[in-house]
Design goal:
TIM Barrel, 10 helices, globular, alpha/beta
Length: about 260
């Protein structure tokens, strides 16, 4: 059995670490480079870096920040935000990332997933999905709709259908960002995560809502996720990586424990 992964998300706006609640009320809370180094040294398994306004501002990602983070960490590091072409993805990988994370641009141009997967390998391509609850319709039978541009633009696309299509196009991993749970610290969206994890064969990372170690246990077991993404729990110093992993190991979840 593969170890479950604990991943931290660095949402970056204007070069500063930021945090929102349900994708709004975003506040700057620190230096992403310093936080990345701190989490790496504490035993985090992976890092995800999102330039959260690159897509909505129609600009390129901040490669200088990507490069500075990559210099400080020696764990898998994926980067997303404003990646619209294979060339954009290549620049991020050359700046030090190991994976590229596509979201809005992939919805607008699904061929981007296939082209990136062909160019860099499926293991380097992560499809990130921002999802919110919606009234079930023939177009959205699961009751979960994909939203793009940093949670600003609903597109009438069913999340379950998009997850399956992303896998078929060549994504090697999925990040499921629940807009409804984002920043609430009240627990992950278990129904959504489980539905997608059971529908695809590639790893699924649950994102949005982690507030205490019990929430990670729930999504990694009941939610069938392969990894859990945390932000507020670490950013605000409420828990350490070691505390989270020790709790999970104590409840029988296989994790890579930090060296003592």
């Amino acid at each position: 059995m593969l170890s479950k992964r604990i991943i931290s998300c660095l949402d970056v706006r204007d070069g500063k670490l930021a945090k929102s609640v349900k994708f709004v009320d975003t506040k700057e809370i620190g230096d992403p480079v310093a936080q990345a180094k701190k989490y790496y040294e504490a035993g985090l398994d992976e890092l995800v870096f999102y330039d959260i306004t690159a897509s909505s501002d129609n600009r390129s990602i901040m490669l200088d920040v990507v490069s500075r983070v990559a210099e400080q960490v020696f764990i898998p590091f994926s980067v997303g935000g404003g990646l619209r072409t294979v060339e954009d993805c290549a620049k991020v990988l050359l700046a030090g990332a190991e994976k590229i994370n596509v979201n809005s641009a992939a919805v607008k141009n699904p061929q981007l997933i296939a082209d990136a997967s062909k160019a860099f390998g499926a293991q380097a391509v992560v499809l990130s999905m921002d999802v919110r609850r919606a009234a079930p319709t023939p177009a959205i039978p699961s009751g979960y709709e994909v939203v793009i541009n940093g949670g600003r633009t609903p597109v009438g696309l069913d999340a379950l259908e998009w997850a399956r299509r992303g896998e078929d196009l060549g994504a090697g991993e999925l990040v499921i960002n629940s807009i409804d749970a984002d920043g609430t610290k009240e627990g992950y969206e278990l129904r959504l995560t489980r539905a997608i994890a059971d529908a695809v064969r590639i790893p699924v990372i649950a994102s949005g809502g982690g507030g205490k170690p019990e929430h990670l246990y729930d999504v990694l077991t009941e939610g069938h996720a392969d990894a859990a993404l945390v932000a507020s729990m670490l950013h605000y110093g409420e828990y350490t990586v070691s505390e989270i992993k020790t709790y999970l190991a104590g409840r029988g979840v296989k994790v890579r424990l930090p060296a003592s």
